[in-house]
Each structure stands twice: as C-alpha cells, then as structure tokens.
Design brief:
The complex is a heterodimer. Chain A is mostly helical. Helices cover 80% and strands 0% of the residues of chain A. Chain A has eight helices and no strands. Chain B has two domains: 3-49, no CATH class; 103-232, Protein Transport Mog1p, Chain A (3-Layer(aba) Sandwich), CATH 3.40.1000. Classes of the chains: A mainly alpha, B alpha+beta. Chain A: Residues 28-94 form the RNA polymerase sigma-70 region domain.
C-alpha cells in the first residue's frame, strides 16, 4: 500500500514536471516565435522554408528544453539551433536557395503603396547583402545582441563582427542615399 | 577617439552606450547628426526586417510539439512493453532449459548430505509407515512403499533434486549411518552406480520406479542398505 502511495506521488511529480515544461515551452514560443521566424526568413529568403525551419527549431528546442538552464539565454540558444537547422537544410537538399532568394524577395514584397517603396527597396537590399554581412546585422537589430554576443554566436572574433556590421550598414546607406538623390533628381 | 575609429564604431553599433563613444559624439555637433542619421537608418531597417509572421505560427508550433510528444510517449510505452515481454521470454526459456538439463544425481546427493548436517545427528526413530505416507505424496511414486521396517530410520524429510520432490532418509547401516535419497525416476537424471568425494562414498541404484542414492562413509554400509531396500521397497 505504501508502495502504491509512493508510486502515485512520483507520477504526480512527473506530471507536474511535464506540465511546467509545457508551460515553459509555450511561453518560449509566444515570446520568441516572431523573432525566430523573421531571422529564419532573412536567412533563407522564403516564407515557407522559414516556417519549416522555425518548426524544426522549436521541435528540437522542446526535445532539449531541459538543457536550457537560463531563460535569458533562450534567444541565443534558439538562434544557435536555428542556424544549425538551416545548415542541415543545405546538407539534406543539394540545391542552393541563395540563387532563388533575390527573385523570391521581389515577389514577396509588392511595392503597391508609395509609402512602402522605401521599405520595399530596403528589403530588397537586405536580401541582396552577402549572408556574412546580413547575419550580424540581423542579430544586432532583430536579436538585440551586442558585438560580443554576436561574435560568440557566429564563432567569429569581435573585430570581424564589427567590420561586417560596418560594411553592411555602409552598403545599405549607400543604396538608400543614392536612391534619395535619384528620387530628388527625378522630382 | 579619432574620426576613423568613431565612424567605424558608429557604423558598427550606432546604439552603443559605450562611454568613450558617447563622449566622442558630444565633441562635435556634426558627429551627433551623423549618428542620428545612422540611428534613423536602424529604425528603418528594423521596420524593414519585421516581415509578417503567419498569424497561426505559434499555435502550429505548440500543436506540432504536442503531437510529437504524444507520439514519442506512445512509442516509449511500446518500447517498455517490448522490453518486459522479451525479459519474460528469456526468463521463461532459460528456466525451462534449466529444467531440461541433465542432472548429476550423485553430486546433488553429496551436496544435500553436506547441507543438512542436522540429519546426521537426529534420532527421530521414524516408522516405515510414516515414510510410506511421505512416499505417497511424491509424484511418480504414489504406489511405492516399504513393506516392512528397513532397519532403523533416524531422520526423514522432503528434499528437492532440481525441482523434483524427493525423500531424504537417514538409516542405520552396519557400522555407521547411511543417508538415503529416494528420487522419482526421471529421464534427465543421470544415475551413477558409484560416486564419492574425500569424505563420503555413494551408490546409486534403481528400485521399482525410484532412483535410490545411498551415501555413507563406509562401503559396507552402502551394500547393507541396498540389500535392505531391495528387500523391503516395492
């Protein structure tokens, strides 16, 4: 009888463990799915692929949720998983998405609205950035990570990261400035 | 902070709160404008990077996880059941193989003698009728019995030969005590005519449907008991 009582007790703790894990996962999804999806989108340039990668990332996160000790590190942790999933995609499928992505981006953002023209242009330019410049920028702006954190995530040294961020902004600013100049000239 | 370093820093991290950088901004109003320009760019970039997230994405993520979790739990219990089944299977097989394995009666008889040392010192003066009652309960020996007292019996008990219920008797020999085992005959038993170790000598013989194993210190005692048994056991 004592055994039975103990078993019952154990199974309830297992259940409550399970429940708190589920709650933790749910809040993780709610808090971070948008950032993760956007990061995936800018990494691969395709809505559907981005959704797939996000799915895989969160599924993997669920499986190893116990290894996430500090909830503050959750974003960096998820991005590490996501980058691995993205790399895995290239191992699995032999075709290269980066050839597709510029075309894809053009289709995704229609410049129907005048006000959105600049954003459309910017998006196109971000899509055209080399992946090695784009990724640190994504981490800084979407992720809100510092130079050191980006360096750690990308396995680069901090100076390289800062140089890449410099070049990324430089290229984007150039494009924006020239279009503004051209726009003014046209007007 | 020189101009080049400042510009690199500004382009790399316009939102930086590094005190050196903030001080550098304050040095010159054109620098402030320059940084504000970049901050403005960042704001635009932030808006540009905010692509629409599918409305139901978070629900989908939770649904997928729950389906997978459910599935894996079912798989896990399936695995446990398979494990338990195979353990039971192996246990069953080995147990039945163990029962089928040939048994050397001589070794067992000697081991029993050593094990039940109280038997050699007991003096219960058992009647052959009591022994017959015990015999009747042995499977395969229901109809066997002693027709008369086979000399003095000091001790009697049931014992176990590899799962076969047998009788352990201690009898009077010519010179010393003799231990006698009455074991229902079974194919897997190997009956040796004689066996021995450094202390005891043993003898095995068949009487009706039973295997008899006599163990004593002296060879004469064995012969004596054998004769007694053959005469009285049917």
């Amino acid at each position: 009888m004592f055994d039975q009582w103990r078993n019952k007790n154990k199974s309830t703790t297992v259940n409550s463990d399970m429940l708190s894990k589920q709650r933790r996962y749910n809040s993780l999804v709610r808090a971070l799915h948008a950032d993760i999806y956007r990061y995936a989108f800018w990494l691969c340039g395709d809505k559907h692929v981005a959704e797939d990668i996000t799915q895989e990332t969160f599924l993997r996160a669920w499986k190893s949720l116990d290894s996430l000790k500090d909830d503050k590190a959750a974003k960096a942790w998820l991005i590490t998983i996501l980058r691995r999933e993205n790399a895995r995609r290239f191992e699995r499928k032999q075709f290269d998405y980066s050839d597709v992505e510029q075309e894809q981006l053009v289709d995704v953002f229609s410049s129907s609205n005048e006000e959105h023209t600049e954003q459309y242009l910017l998006r196109r330019q971000i899509g055209k950035l080399d992946a090695e410049y784009r990724e640190p920028l994504l981490l800084q702006i979407i992720g809100g990570f510092s130079g050191e954190e980006i360096a750690e995530l990308l396995d680069l040294n901090r100076n390289t990261v800062m140089t890449r961020l410099f070049r990324a902004r430089n290229q984007l600013k150039d494009v924006l400035d020239t279009t503004e100049v051209r726009g003014q000239a046209n007007g | 902070m020189d101009e080049l370093k400042f510009r690199r820093h500004a382009y790399g991290e316009p939102q930086s709160q590094d005190p050196e950088f903030l001080a550098a901004i304050n040095e010159d109003s054109s620098r402030e404008e320059f940084v504000n320009d970049l901050k403005f760019l960042d704001a635009k970039l932030e808006q540009a990077l905010k692509v629409d997230v599918p409305d139901d994405l978070s629900d989908k993520l939770i649904l997928r996880q729950q389906l997978t979790h459910h599935h894996s739990q079912r798989k896990k219990t399936g695995f446990m059941v398979a494990m338990a089944a195979s353990v039971a299977f192996v246990a069953g097989i080995s147990f039945s193989l163990l029962r089928l394995a040939p048994v050397d009666l001589g070794d067992h008889a000697l081991a029993h003698v050593y094990h039940e040392d109280e038997a050699m010192t007991a003096d219960q003066n058992v009647s052959f009728k009591d022994v017959n009652v015990q015999l009747a309960s042995l499977k395969g020996l229901e109809n066997s019995r002693f027709t008369q007292q086979p000399g003095e019996v000091f001790y009697t008990t049931y014992c176990d030969f590899q799962g076969v219920k047998s009788i352990h008797l201690v009898m009077e020999g010519q010179q010393g005590k003799v231990t006698l085992f009455v074991v229902p005959a079974e194919k897997r038993f190997m009956l040796e005519e004689s066996f021995a170790d450094e202390n005891y000598k043993g003898m095995g013989f068949e009487a009706n449907d039973a295997y008899m194993l006599a163990v004593a210190e002296q060879e004469e005692d064995l012969e004596y008991v054998k004769k007694e048994i053959i005469n009285t056991f049917i």
